[in-house]
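in:
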């Protein structure tokens, strides 16, 4: 097992922050992960698991072991006329996995195209976009309990998926290393094109007959136009979650802000667009010394040249405060702060 000491994490987080860690270890097999967690080094140091580092903000150095997940492999485990079951190793790149499924005509995750990061982190916050959440296709999450070294399996229900959350982001955070995920995908697609600009983009692209690839291409095109590419501008996607409020709160807000975008939820609550709330507070496109709020989407905080993420965290505090003052709503961070 190769151990790098006093390593920079700059290449391992999409904000491009130059935090350091005491030890950096890349894991290519579950055996080497088992070996690591039995070691004295592991027992004497705190640990942090990283996939693609696209949902983390480092505000300081990490005084312990950063474990980079590079487990690989995608396998079809069974199929019938309607569905196919796939096991994908946690270190696989999420977008490449989506493309692999599309090439094989396996439907269900095409709307989740171009989300950065790894397969193993996808259940962690139940990634979602354009009306689809990964929980819709996950049958099982396989993970190693980092205290006992035992492999455990979590059914979809046991993962307690919610809006951008799961047991792995709450009570089990940093206690389990997700090693692979089992998916059930469909051989007969049910296209979901009603969300956001997908339909319009498909029309612009001149698509006459829907296909998984066409939907994926439309999502890729929209995302490329709207979101900053982390290879060019450091960011971790949406910094905050969209809040949901009661009908009562919504009625109060609607009275004062008649144009407020709102999405009624099955549980009778109303989802609001955090990006809109932040924009109304005047933050959209604001630039400070080396960081700021993205010009196209106020939900995305960006890093132009910072080496340390503390100012971005401080900015997020100010944003939370101003949204609280204007709307009486407390925004919650989606990004994992270290
Ligand atoms: P990391 O950032 O490496 O880790 C995230 C958290 O998960 C950390 O706390 C880490 O410790 C933990 N973790 C990672 N791997 C494991 C593992 N194997 N076992 C246990 N814990 C683990 N998210 C969406 O939901 N929808 C979007 O549309 C979306 N768009 C994005 C667009 C951009 C441009 C960017 C930069 C980010 C976007 N994100 C989006 C956020 C991010 O891509 C996802 O949350 C992604 O799943 C993170 O994967 P990762 O491998 O980079 O995780
Ligand atoms: P958008 O289309 O400008 O919409 C703004 C917000 O309104 C979104 O956050 C979305 O909530 C909500 N929304 C829009 N249409 C909706 C509908 N028909 N029903 C319910 N809610 C609706 O958003 P965007 O910024 O361009 O992002 C597009 C999609 O990619 C969204 O699903 C977003 O979540 C996802 N995305 C996520 C991240 C991340 O880091 N988490 C980053 C970029 C994009 P939802 O967020 O709940 O979908």
């Amino acid at each position: 097992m190769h151990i790098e000491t006093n390593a920079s994490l700059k290449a391992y987080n999409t904000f491009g922050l130059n935090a350091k860690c005491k030890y950096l270890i890349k894991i290519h097999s579950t055996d080497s992960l088992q070996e690591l967690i039995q070691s004295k080094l592991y027992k004497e140091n705190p640990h942090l698991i990283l996939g693609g580092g696209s949902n983390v903000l480092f505000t300081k150095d990490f005084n312990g072991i950063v474990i980079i997940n590079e487990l690989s492999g995608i396998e079809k485990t069974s199929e019938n006329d309607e569905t196919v079951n796939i096991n994908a190793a946690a270190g696989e790149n999420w977008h490449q996995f989506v493309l692999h499924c599309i090439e094989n005509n396996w439907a269900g995750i095409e709307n989740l195209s171009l989300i950065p990061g790894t397969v193993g982190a996808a259940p962690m916050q139940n990634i979602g976009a354009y009306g689809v959440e990964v929980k819709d296709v996950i049958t099982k999450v396989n993970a190693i309990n980092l205290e006992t070294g035992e492999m455990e399996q979590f059914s979809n229900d046991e993962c307690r998926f919610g809006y951008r959350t799961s047991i792995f982001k709450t009570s089990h955070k940093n206690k389990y290393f997700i090693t692979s995920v089992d998916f059930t995908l469909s051989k007969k697609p049910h296209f979901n094109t009603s969300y956001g600009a997908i339909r319009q983009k498909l029309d612009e692209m001149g698509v006459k007959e829907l296909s998984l690839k066409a939907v994926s291409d439309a999502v890729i095109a929209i995302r490329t136009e709207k979101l900053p590419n982390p290879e060019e501008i450091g960011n971790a996607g949406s910094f905050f979650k969209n809040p949901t409020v009661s009908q009562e709160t919504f009625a109060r807000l609607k009275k004062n802000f008649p144009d407020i975008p709102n999405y009624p939820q099955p549980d009778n609550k109303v989802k609001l667009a955090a990006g809109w709330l932040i924009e109304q507070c005047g933050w959209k496109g604001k630039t400070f010394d080396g960081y700021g709020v993205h010009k196209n989407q106020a939900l995305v905080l960006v890093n132009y040249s910072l080496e340390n993420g503390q100012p971005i965290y401080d900015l997020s505090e100010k944003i939370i405060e101003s949204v609280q003052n204007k709307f009486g709503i407390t925004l919650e961070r989606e990004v994992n702060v270290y």
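note: Helices lie at 30-38, 40-44, 94-103, 198-204, 212-226, 247-256, 274-280, 310-327.
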